[in-house]
Design brief:
366 residues, alpha/beta, Rossmann fold, 2 domains, seven-stranded parallel β-sheet, six-stranded parallel β-sheet, 15 helices, 13 strands, 43% helix
Length: 366
């Protein structure tokens, strides 16, 4: 089986990392993969390292109509059995048109849960033979928007649990971020964009600092809201309690050093950061929206709060900061939950089953 994959992301954020996991796993099942991605993207380098053929082409987003013909040439050159498109940024619609022009069966992965205009839904999803939702929350949104049930499949995103089983270099960690020996450290790992809800977490901090004066927040990620968040930190006088740490590719070493992770996103397809944190044995405070309740089970491996409420965030965080034993117990439960339901092999086999169904090939169970 030969599959051409299209990923439009430039950075190794959650979705692109899933593509790397998938292509690596497919190799072990005898699938030949070919990746098309933007010029200079981080995913290209990562995929080449695992021996997958990569073709880099210009990708200019939704209005880059020339992308249709560049993808068409790439598809024709690779002669795949099917095409799997993993991202938006023009690739979902323009890539779907390109596969139609080539007469190739195609699959689209849907990673976000934001609603789409009914006309867009009608036009886009009819381009594809199957649509893979990376959480049941996304699948429910797509179903409500009219995507036919026989076209829709839920294959959850995965996490390499063992990668996050590292011992924390506590002295090095605290020195790196200038943290006091007795600091309670929580983190948030997300792009600095409005829907990730950082502003609500910052609003919750002053109240928490009254009870936990040595509390420190590490904000991992980059994005257009950095300056806005810097201003909010200054207005709230949180400079001694918040570090904007930027995008980090060493989260497997950093997460085990935290006391908890907070994910205040207003909407989220699933949240790869939640899977990573749970794998590292961290309790989590997240929002009861989108696919987040699939990764964080309220009262089991974390606490869920309503979206957009700094008061609810503060209350939930307080519960965990005030109870070390509860943090430990929830961290252990989260790690086990990841091993049971979010393994890379489960994700690979789920995608492979979709491919085999489209190509009328016998199912593989292991």
């Amino acid at each position: 089986m030969r599959v051409l994959h299209i990923e439009a992301g430039m950075h190794l954020y959650g979705g692109a990392r899933q593509v790397v996991y998938l292509l690596s796993g497919l190799q072990h099942h005898g699938v030949e993969s070919h990746l098309v991605c933007p010029c200079g993207s981080a995913v290209a380098e990562a995929v080449r390292e695992i021996g997958v053929r990569v073709e880099e082409i210009p990708m200019g987003g939704d209005l880059d109509l020339g992308l249709i013909f560049r993808l068409k040439r790439a598809i024709q050159g690779a002669t795949p059995d099917l095409v799997h498109i993993h991202s938006r940024r023009g690739a979902d619609i323009l890539g779907g048109i390109a596969t139609r022009l080539c007469g190739i069966k195609s699959v689209l992965s849907r990673r976000v849960d934001n609603p789409e205009h009914p006309l867009l839904v009608m036009a886009k999803y009819r381009l594809y033979d199957h649509v893979i939702a990376i959480s049941q929350g996304i699948a429910d949104v797509l179903s409500q928007e009219g995507v036919p049930a026989d076209k829709l499949v839920c294959v959850r995103s995965a996490v390499d649990v063992d990668l996050y089983q590292q011992q924390c270099d506590r002295a090095g960690f605290r020195a790196q971020f200038g943290l006091a020996e007795d600091a309670l450290v929580m983190g948030v790992a997300a792009q600095l964009i409005p829907r990730k809800g950082h502003r609500y977490l910052l609003l919750a901090l002053p109240r928490l600092i009254q009870s936990f004066p040595h509390l420190h927040l590490l904000v991992f990620g980059k994005g257009p809201l950095r300056e806005v968040l810097e201003q909010q930190i200054e207005v709230l006088q949180l400079q001694q309690h918040v570090t904007l740490a930027g995008f980090r590719d060493d989260l497997p070493q950093l997460l085990p050093c935290l006391d908890l992770l907070v994910h205040p996103a207003l909407m989220e397809g699933l949240g790869v950061a939640l899977l990573q944190a749970a794998s590292a044995g961290l309790p989590i405070v997240a929002v009861e929206a989108g696919g987040m309740p699939e990764a964080v089970e309220d009262g089991v491996n974390g606490l869920l709060v309503p979206p957009g409420s700094d008061e609810a965030l503060a209350d939930a965080i307080y519960q965990l900061l005030d109870n070390e034993e509860l943090r430990r117990r929830m961290g252990e439960s989260g790690r086990e939950k990841m091993r049971r339901g979010f393994s890379v092999e489960q994700m690979v086999l789920g995608n492979l089953a979709v491919y085999r169904d489209l190509l009328n090939l016998p199912e593989v169970t292991g």
